[in-house]
Amino acid sequence: MPTLLITGANRGLGLELTREFARHHWRVLACCRSPEEAGDLQALAAAAEAVAIHRLEVGDIAQVRDLAGRLKGAPIDILFNNAGIFGPKHQRFGETDEAGWLEAFRINCIAPLRLAEAFVEHVAASERRVIATMGSVMGSIAENGSGGDYAYRTSKAAVHMVMKGLAVDLAARGIVTVVLHPGWVQTSMGGSNAPLTPEASAAGLTEVLLGLRREQSGMLIDYQGNVRPW
Ligand SMILES: NC(=O)c1ccc[n+]([C@@H]2O[C@H](COP(=O)([O-])OP(=O)(O)OC[C@H]3O[C@@H](n4cnc5c(N)ncnc54)[C@H](OP(=O)(O)O)[C@@H]3O)[C@@H](O)[C@H]2O)c1
Prior knowledge:
- The structure is a single chain.
- The protein has one domain: 3-Layer(aba) Sandwich (Rossmann fold).
- The chain has 6 helices and 8 strands, in the order βαβαβαβαβαβαββ.
- The chain has helices at 12-23, 39-47, 61-70, 98-124, 150-169, 198-210; strands at residues 3-6, 27-32, 51-55, 78-81, 130-134, 176-181, 219-222, 227-228.
- The protein has an 8-stranded mixed sheet, sandwiched between helices.
- It binds NADP nicotinamide-adenine-dinucleotide phosphate (NAP).
- NADP nicotinamide-adenine-dinucleotide phosphate binds at residues 7-8, 10-14, 32-34, 57-59, 82-85, 107, 134, 136, 182, 184-185, 187-190, 194.
């Protein structure tokens, strides 16, 4: 049975991706920072034997390494860095908050690299060997037509570069690295005006991941399978 490890699995896109991969008969290591508060995920794990919940605050390197150690020897076919934050409420020109901006960088950009470093042997030992990170067209320099959102946009642009670097660094180990854009989705981050449901986005992202080809490594791909510009 192939295995997915996903962060931020307790709600939003992470929860739907967990549901979707379980439906495709994958084992899912569903990580979230407060399992005791993750009612929906607990219900899913109770109904689907292949879903196991693990506590993981992605910004806590000790927790990341501890989980990697406890899972030592277990192949992970897809390591999916899904957890992310928008950052400070106000991010327009003239109102950027430095501490909040740094926190967005820590969680959205640095944590995915730390996870890749901690779990690279698990991924290398698997059949599919994929590291995926949730990026965003909000982090695309080419597609920025509306400005603002400085903390979020720059943290995503930076993680795009991290993943491109991993695609180069880990190619010799046969590891495929992609950045995914889920569309604009109705989650707590995306808000209720978003046109896409988490179910539709997760279904599209799952299809993209299951059909991933080696030559797509180092690309930004949306939930419909389109390659988007950096
Ligand atoms: N929704 C959109 O339109 C959209 C568009 C483009 C990209 N994305 C990206 O898609 C990903 C998922 O977003 P979403 O829309 O599902 O947002 P969401 O509903 O706000 O969920 C965010 C998830 O990330 C987790 N998380 C945040 N900080 C964490 C940390 N330090 N450690 C562990 N988990 C943490 C949250 O856990 P808690 O419940 O513990 O806070 C939650 O599970 C994010 O990377 C986001 O940037 C979303």
